[in-house]
Amino acid sequence: MTTLEGPRGRLRSHHACLNCRRKKTRCPGEKPACSSCVRLNQACSYASVARAPPGERSEDRLAHLEEKLDLILSGTGTSDRTPRPSHASRQEQPLGQNNDISPRSYPATPPEPNYSATRPFSLGFRSKHGSLRPSSSVIARAIELYFEYCHRQPIWCFNREEVEDHDRLADDLVCSILALTSRFWRERDQLQDYGDKARSLIMLHVANGTVELTTIESLCLLSFSFFIDADMHLGRFHLGLAFQLCRSAKLDLESTYVLQSPTTERKKRLFWSLQILEQSYGQQTGLLSISTEVWRPSHLCNDGGQKDLESRPPPLPLDNIGSTSTDPGIWSATVPLGWVWSRARTYVSNCARNQLKEPWRHDSMYATVLSDLLDTENMIPISHRYDSVKFYERKAEELKMNRAYWIPWLKSQFTYHAIHSVLNHPFLYIVAAQHNQNLGIPNTFWRKSSELVLLHATWIVRLIDMASDKQVRLIDPFFGHVAAIAATVHVYYCCATDPRLKYKSNIDFAKCRKFLKSFASFSHACEDLGQTLDKMTRIASGSQSTDIEDWVPSKIHLSIPLMWDILQFNCKSEPRDMPTGGLLHPSLVPPVTRKDKEENHTLEIIVATSPEVTVNTADGGQAVPTSSYRTTVASAPDASGTIPLPDVLVAPTDSLMLNTPWLWADPSQFDMGGMSYQDSEATVGDIGGSTWWDFGNL
User: Fold this and answer.
1) Which has the minimum average pLDDT: 103-107, 179-183, 220-224, 566-570?
2) Where do the record's region annotations for Disordered lie (predicted)?
3) Domain span holding position 685
4) Which of its termini does the chain have fewer beta carbons within 10 Å around, N or C?
């Protein structure tokens, strides 16, 4: 089993058994069967290895001495080594302090056990490939943080019981979990290297032809970690590699799942987790980008989903959390909505390249995306709808205990309103009107879309308020992106004619901006997005200050390049401007083409009063302006026994949507628990029960 080598008689095992080598764990080396295999009741066997020549023995002894020296040096404390530049060094405040929506919006990160006395990050053991595996207590803590912050938000690779045995977890999966959760540790500087270790182990699996399910799961975790850190190139590289490995294993075909196995559901969850990352962060342009049409949900296909097994994608995973036997579960319900969101992202990309067909045409992309959204909305069970779950009535403790349900539920709500906000964003059509004269003609579409975008952007603020009030911690940068999109809408309406709408848009903009900045302590991507929003705000206000609490402008200047960066989630912070994210050798780095983001690339938005309309009887009088009115609706007491405060509502004279008076409501009278309003005095223009939250929810 062992041989004596060198003058000191060092004992060394030549090689591990096949089982330990496959799992990348230390092998005791006993023969004919090692104690590890005996304990696990597995057949133990060794591969035959030829004895090395004397010259190679010297090299092997030198490598052993170097390995021992590394252990000795690491045992003196990893703090002596120069840490890699990390996001923590750029943040003076720890996670969860002084950067949240409100003083009690998000709970601070729970205190971790004091590991500094035992130095778990340095007192580990080296596996076969030289990776430093942390202690079992560190692995347990990393897994706990994963399920507290990242599980089903948005990825869902494994359940808790599938990773209970820490000793049997593959090294690459352990390192990937540590890399993803490192942003939530106090010792985050000491955990930065685990991302590189995970990448090395994954590439060894690929090179040796030993790729397992945990290898692809590790790629999924790493890609999500890179997306959080705004390293889009590395994130998309690892995501693309994971897709290629899925194709090699045929995990992208329904025929693979005909025969059930213990890992069938885990494979489904992995595949659709990769799809969710692609929908939110994948590349939308370029010849090599994946067409979103390939993953059109079966209920949206023209053939009714009657494809053969070799061309159908895998079924959605089973989700028993908060669901019944008749629906797939809330996490699975977010997948079709995510696909429509990816179509909306493609729509924005087309607009940025001046490839926009008039949105009112039946064959336009606007029409098809909106049609897919309505079809998908109809597929969502009633039990998961806003009015059914009554999120606003739930206690914070209840939501915290059932995060696995409520985080995906919030994701579906944010996605739904984000799609409407993007499709109807006025910036898209103002820019497009410069290249398409048909878009420059005032028409019904302009008026209706401007009201729809304000409706859904206000719903996004409503959801932000509820998440803050209920102390729900959100981690996925997608939520920050949606808040930034809503902020650009409210900036646009800060120069509205109605002073109450001006004031309300100003308040909502501040909420979106504060919510986005709450992600900056752990996400480079949202930090970059916040900086872009600040630059756009300074240009819009014409001052160097980003504090526009009392800002009531008569006109604003919207920066065209910065608006595209926000809508397309382009993360381009100055310290990390490498276009390849450290992926390529400098000889392959393409030249950087920077956009000029000066004020001469702006749109000037000027306050305009309601237009005077001349009645034309030829069109049936459709252009007749409506009268301004005030309306009130009586409501019953809510569940808490209180009656919401009254809200004064006034519609502009040129509004087509008489049933959305909330657009001009006074925000100071919002009631978080109530869903309707009352007034003791009845006035003209009563719309018979139409109130703030009766419209536009999912």
Assistant:
1) 103-107
2) 74-120
3) 611-698
4) N
